[in-house]
């Protein structure tokens, strides 16, 4: 038995009205050793109907001023509450959903804390706990197997506790389930602000941290200063097109010819030198020489650090009449005689020794453009922007990428910090990393998947935004299409994405619509609230109304892994485990002690 608090007096579809006893307004009650919460908003009541207890959540309260009753000789107004059924208890335990409805005069009872806990803890491992329910103050276990088998969204304004929730979720997973997931799953964090490079989430022996920087030259002896890519992956059309933002109609086919040349001749010793010499000869002896080829050849000679060829090319001029090259006022004809006499011997001194893979790429791009211009395959104006992007981007990419056939050591958790990278690199690298892990996993995983990859993107609006004005519309569409493919198709291959953002309305609606489970902290912007209201079908109106006023660390949890929305106060992590995103303590920073120490 429990404490009777009232009875049903009206049933309007799934909306119930209960007449409540006056004495039930106390916040906490004790009965036969059990603790009960009094009647208030978001509390739970049990309505007996036959052998079943129908569980209802209180959504509103009012006084019926048209009716009064006598209590202890004094007249009081009738207190009424509005409630909504959410499930029922029977011999098998709690079942979520509206199957039975009460009738008028059915008695209403308070639910004990143990009964409430059984509503949320049923059929799941209740030891996976990241906090307590806000109102009931009950520690509730999360269904971790169903939760991590889905795409997760963690949203909240800055300072709302979003980063702590993300860190807490995965810290508890690694602390409690490490033996179960080691060797079967990998976790990758794209960390834009450098918040997870310390002791956060997992122990150092299970964690690899890549601290990328475009501000300084990398330490070549430190493998953590550059992200490793295999040579084969670097020379893929998809990788090249992504790194250099190639247009699909002209620049991608050009890059494809560059890569085809590498695939055909790249493994042959001396082939790059022979290719360079051949391209020079074809350029000088062509029927109609393109003036742009001279600048391209000068770029090649400078890249190969050949002073002789550079000096020789300085004496070469292009003559408009007939479109010919001239050396010391003599035309170089198509028969090759003048070339062999004046130019060929110097060109033979070219050497590709000492060029790394990045220099080889620039060299091949210039040589391919020389060849294509002479053959009439392309127009220089169409390829020149790509050439400039290749030359300018490689200065930064050389600092953050290591192209090698030596495989990187695999760890349970990989953190890729891009805090010290410039905006250009931050825009391209996350997409490269996502495709790197997605393609590798998709091509090697069994069917059904025998292992999983979990991609965690903190501050996801940096890369998943559909509103960016700093990039071309074509590139933005390409970037979003790649991530949308991963989030739409990745689940069948065992790849899952967790995104955390303070502006969910900026993220592509397609991506948000594919998220299964949500941890929603305080949001106050109308666009964000509109998105939440129209995207999350499992969020009830009462929980939604709480979002703008949630306190720090408090969040609404809902989704396919949770049959009922919950409001949880997430436990704060210890200092060393917290992500490096804490607010500045101005009281400490501006204190007299600190000021005196600076004098």
TrEMBL record:
Pfam families attached to this UniProt entry: DUF87
CDD domains, alphabetized: TrwB_TraG_TraD_VirD4 (cd01127)
InterPro entries per the UniProt record, alphabetical: HerA-like (IPR008571), HerA_central (IPR002789), P-loop_NTPase (IPR027417)
Gene3D superfamilies: P-loop containing nucleotide triphosphate hydrolases
Domain Helicase HerA central: start-end pairs: 129-281
PANTHER family, sorted: HELICASE MJ1565-RELATED
Name used for this protein in its record: Helicase HerA central domain-containing protein
């Amino acid at each position: 038995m429990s404490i009777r608090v009232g009875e049903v007096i009206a049933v309007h579809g799934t909306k119930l009205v209960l007449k409540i006893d006056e004495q039930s307004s106390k916040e906490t009650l004790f009965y036969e050793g059990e603790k009960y919460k009094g009647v208030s908003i978001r509390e739970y009541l049990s309505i007996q109907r036959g052998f079943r207890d129908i569980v209802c959540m209180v959504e509103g309260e009012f006084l019926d001023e048209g009716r009064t009753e006598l209590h202890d000789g004094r007249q009081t107004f009738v207190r009424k509450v509005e409630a909504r059924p959410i499930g029922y208890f029977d011999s098998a335990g709690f079942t979520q959903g509206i199957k039975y409805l009460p009738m008028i005069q059915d008695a209403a009872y308070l639910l004990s804390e143990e009964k409430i806990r059984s509503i949320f803890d049923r059929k799941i491992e209740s030891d996976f706990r990241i906090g307590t329910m806000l109102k009931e103050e009950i520690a509730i276990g999360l269904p971790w197997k169903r939760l991590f088998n889905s795409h997760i969204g963690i949203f909240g304004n800055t300072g709302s506790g979003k980063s702590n929730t993300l860190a807490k979720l995965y810290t508890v997973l690694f602390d409690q389930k490490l033996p179960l997931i080691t060797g079967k799953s990998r976790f990758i964090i794209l960390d834009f602000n450098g918040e997870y490079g310390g002791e956060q989430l997992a122990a150092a022996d299970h964690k690899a941290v890549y601290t990328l920087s475009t501000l300084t030259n990398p330490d070549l002896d430190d493998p953590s200063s550059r992200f490793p890519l295999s040579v084969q992956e670097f020379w893929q059309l998809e990788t090249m097109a992504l790194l250099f933002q190639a247009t699909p109609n002209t620049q991608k086919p050009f890059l494809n010819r560059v890569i085809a040349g590498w695939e055909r001749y790249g493994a042959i010793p001396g082939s790059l030198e022979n290719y360079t010499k051949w391209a020079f000869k074809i350029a000088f002896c062509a029927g109609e020489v393109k003036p742009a080829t001279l600048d391209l050849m000068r770029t090649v000679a400078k890249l190969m650090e050949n002073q002789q060829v550079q000096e020789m090319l300085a004496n070469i001029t292009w003559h408009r009449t007939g479109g010919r090259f001239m050396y010391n006022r003599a035309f170089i004809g198509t028969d090759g005689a003048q070339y062999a006499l004046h130019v060929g011997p110097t060109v033979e001194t070219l050497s590709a020794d000492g060029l790394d893979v990045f220099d080889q790429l620039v060299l091949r791009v210039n040589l391919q453009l020389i060849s294509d211009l002479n053959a009439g395959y392309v127009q220089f104006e169409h390829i020149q922007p790509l050439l400039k992007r290749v030359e300018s981007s490689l200065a930064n990419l050389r600092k953050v990428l290591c192209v090698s056939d030596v495989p990187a050591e695999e760890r349970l958790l990989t953190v890729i910090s891009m805090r010290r990278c410039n905006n250009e690199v931050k825009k391209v690298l996350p997409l490269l990393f996502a495709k790197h892990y997605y393609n590798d996993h998709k091509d090697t995983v069994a069917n059904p998947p025998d292992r999983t990859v979990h991609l965690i993107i903190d501050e996801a609006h940096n890369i998943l935004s559909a509103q960016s004005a700093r990039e071309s519309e074509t590139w933005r569409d390409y970037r979003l299409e790649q991530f949308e493919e991963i989030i739409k198709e990745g689940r069948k291959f065992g790849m899952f994405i967790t995104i955390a953002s303070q502006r969910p309305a900026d993220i592509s609606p397609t991506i948000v619509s594919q998220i299964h489970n949500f941890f929603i902290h305080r949001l106050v912007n109308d666009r964000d609230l509109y998105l939440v209201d129209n995207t999350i079908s499992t969020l009830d109106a009462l929980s939604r109304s709480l979002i703008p006023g949630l306190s720090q660390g408090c969040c609404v949890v809902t989704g396919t892994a949770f049959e009922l929305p919950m409001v949880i106060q997430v436990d704060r992590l210890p200092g060393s485990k917290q992500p490096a995103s804490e607010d500045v303590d101005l009281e400490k920073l501006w204190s007299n002690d600190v000021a005196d120490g600076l004098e």
